[in-house]
Amino acid sequence: MSKFPRPIIVVSKCLGFASCRYDGQVIPSSFVESMKPFVDFICVCPECEIGLGVPRDPIRIVLDGKKRLVQPATGIELTQKMERFADSYLEELDDFDGFILKSRSPSCGMGTTKVYPNAEGKNWLNSEENGFFADAVFNKYPHLPAVDEVQVNDLLIRDHFLTVVFTLSSFREASSLMSMHSLIEYHTRNKLLLMAYDKQLMLSMGNVVANREKRPVEMVFGEYLDLLLQILSKPAETGSTINAMLHSFGYISRYLGAQEKFIFLQKLQGYREDSSVLLELKERILSWSLQFNVEYISEQTFLCPYPQKFACRDQNGNFR
Ligand code: SF4
Question: Quick one: how far is CA 49 from the chain centroid?
Answer without folding.
Answer: 25
